[in-house]
Amino acid sequence: MSARIFAIANQKGGVGKTTTSVNLAAALALSGQRTLLVDLDPQGNATMGCGIDKRALAASVYQVLLGMATLPEARKVSPAVGDAAAVGGVLHVLPANRDLAGAEVELVDVAQRETRLKQALATVRDEYDFILIDCPPSLSMLTLNGLCAAHGVIIPMQCEYYALEGLSDLVNTIKKVHANLNRDLAIIGLLRVMYDPRSTLTTQVSAQLEQHFGDKVFRSIIPRNVRLAEAPSFGQPGVVFDPAAKGAQAYLEFAREMIERLKNV
Predict the structure, then answer these.
(1) Is pLDDT above 80 for 221?
(2) What is the pTM of this model?
């Protein structure tokens, strides 16, 4: 069966997209799933968070998008998730570095520029169960490539007022992409991250989300957690760095929820 492809997107920065991408990908691999994580952010944080040195790449997603390398040539095995092989899982990363910032300009004159990533992923879809795309925090040509390649969007968001404002913009963007470029695209779900139950505003916004989006809101909730924040500096996903931490446990539970949801699709 071909992989299910999910873009992890939010136009607002600092909402935990990369933390979610890295930890969900690692948790899926540790659950026995063959997983590919595509880093579409020129900052390369997801690449570094999986234990891959972005400064030492011979090829990256930049070369793949511009047709200078194939996806199998550019992908790397995440050294941080070596244990996954024991349960049949694997975590490959299509890495990114600063080169990718130039792709915005260079893709402008390229034919079918919105679907370059989709075409590249089509060559390896049968090798994976899940493909996750970590999108940059803006509606750029890179994000558009991610949305055109995906079956669905996972939206990580904090439960605060400004996040609600940004969410309506993102939902409108997804509708436009669905109408014009990718008829398969749908919102898979909203993931509440950096959650602090002691805050009245947090619980109020969370209740509003559940009321408005119903079962599109994932049951899993990711709490604020210091260990999750520390993990990238060690080049490891939080679920590997400290599996017993509350944040890591929440992402492992989220991976189980994703696997369960797809069984029922």
Answers:
(1) yes
(2) 0.95
